[in-house]
Amino acid sequence: MKNERDREIMHRMLDNDIAPEEERELRERMEADPELKEEFDALARMLRKVGKSERMAAPAFFTAEVMKRLPIRKKSFLGQVREFLLKGRMLRWNMATALGGAALAILVLALAVRHQETSPVQMASAPQQTQAVTVTMNLYAPEARHVAVAGTFNKWKADANVLTKGENGTWTISIPLNPGTYTYMFVVDGKAWVTDPNAESYRDDGFGYKNAVLRVKT
After folding, report:
1. pLDDT digits over 97-120, tens only?
2. Per-residue confidence band for 93, with pLDDT thresholds at 50, 70 and 90
């Protein structure tokens, strides 16, 4: 490859994301440089080969395994403030800005005190707690030896919620969930991920499979 600019233009040309003048310039250079044209033709052949190759479908449990392994990290309030200040958003203070900010703060404080003195005392109402709703899930699998349910409500853990088998071969579990929308799948014998055939609706997981959708209402 002649240089990085040629590589970038070639890739954008193969992606059909190139300006007409850049494409014309590249074709002129390829006509004058057989080695450059050979490089481009090789990239084009490889792209056509990949496009015609057979695409393997991801297993049903792929999405759940990825979601289970993703680290859950919540930023503290101080961390959010630090990120806001350090990501190119810090103001450049000068003396006039500082004096203006101080005057504004004094004005706001005075208005707040005045409002507090003239306003009647109001009792703050206690925040209402969301009440969990017990949801029952069933799966008919008489030959199964172990059935669990994994979903967004338990971070896709296949061993967190295990169903109980009934005499008729139906596995059942009741789970208290807060109101909201969840996606889930059944895990049969620890390896087969099965979509609930009785779900109210379904959602594509992005890999050719469907997760069951559960909407919990108050």
Report:
1. 556 666 676 776 777 666 665 555
2. very low
* Alpha helices, DSSP H, located in the chain: 4-14, 20-32, 34-52, 62-69, 77-86, 95-118
CB 200 within 8 A of CB 214: yes
| Domain 133-216 indexed as CATH 1.20.120.450 | no
Question: Which class for 156: exposed (0-12), middle (13-18), buried (19 or more C-beta within 10 A)?
Answer: buried
Task: Determine if the pTM surpasses 0.70.
Answer: no
Q: pLDDT tens for residues 157-168?
A: 988 999 999 989
Burial per residue of 98-131, b for 16 or more beta-carbon CB atoms within 10 angstroms, e otherwise: eeeeeeeeeeeeeeeeeeeeeeeeeeeeeeeeee
Q: Residue 134: helix, strand or coil by DSSP?
A: strand
- 6-20 b/e with 16+ CB inside 10 Å = b? beebbeebeeeebee
Where do the structural domains in the chain lie, given as residue ranges? 4-52, 133-216
